[in-house]
TrEMBL record:
GO terms for molecular function: ATP binding; phosphorelay response regulator activity; phosphorelay sensor kinase activity; protein kinase activator activity. Residues 7-223 form the Histidine kinase domain. This is histidine kinase. CDD domains: HisKA (cd00082). It catalyses: ATP + protein L-histidine = ADP + protein N-phospho-L-histidine. It comes from Hymenobacter daecheongensis DSM 21074. The keyword Transit peptide does not apply.
Amino acid sequence: MDTFVYTASHDLKAPITNIEGLLSELLQELPPPTRVGEVSHILALMQDSVDRFKLTIGHLTSSGARSRRTSRTMAASAVALAAIVRDVRLDLAPLLARTAGQLTVEVQDCATLTFSEKNLRSVVYNLLSNALKYHHPARVPRVSIRCRAQEQYWALEVQDNGLGVPLSPERPLFALFQRFHTHVEGSGVGLYMVKKMLENAGGRIEVQSQLGVGSTFTAYFRR
C-alpha cells in the first residue's frame, strides 16, 4: 500500500503540473478584456479544479507517512461536513450535468464530524458519485444527503432512486472487487474502502436497497 500511494502520487504530480502551466499560459494569452461570454467563468473553474486536484495529491502523499507515525485518533479532527459536501459537489458537477441529476443537501444537524478530513471526503465522494453513476436510465436521478444524531453516532444518509442492488449474504456488497452493475466504469474498491475507513474509526456502514427502485446508504460516525 505504501508503494502504491507513493507511486500514484508521484506519477500524478507531473501531468497536473503541466496542466497548471498550460492554464497559466492560457491566462496570459487571454487577458481579461478579451474574455467574452463564459470564458472567465470557465477559466476560474479550471483553476479551481487544478487546486483541488493538487490538494487531493497532497492528501494521498501524506496519508502513508501520517498513518505510520500517528494513530487514527490523532489523525481525526473536527471537520465541517457542509464544506466537505460542497467541495465534493463541485467535483461532481460534470456528472450532475451529464445525468441531469438533482442533489438535495440537508446536513445542518451535523455541523462537524470528528473524523479524518481526507477520509470523510472520500466517504462522501464515493457515496454521492455511486448514487449518480448507477442511476436508472428511465428517470432523472434524485439524490439526497442528510445527517442526524442517532444514539452515540452521527448518521450520514445518502439516498437515491437508481438501479438498486440485489442484497444477499452470498454476495456481500462491501466485499473487495465486488460489482453488481458492470456497464459503468469502476473497480469494486470504493465501497470496500469506505467500510474499512468507517470501521477503523469505530463506525460502520449499512445499506437498504431494492432492485430497480433505489438504495439508501447510511454511514455511522462516532459522536
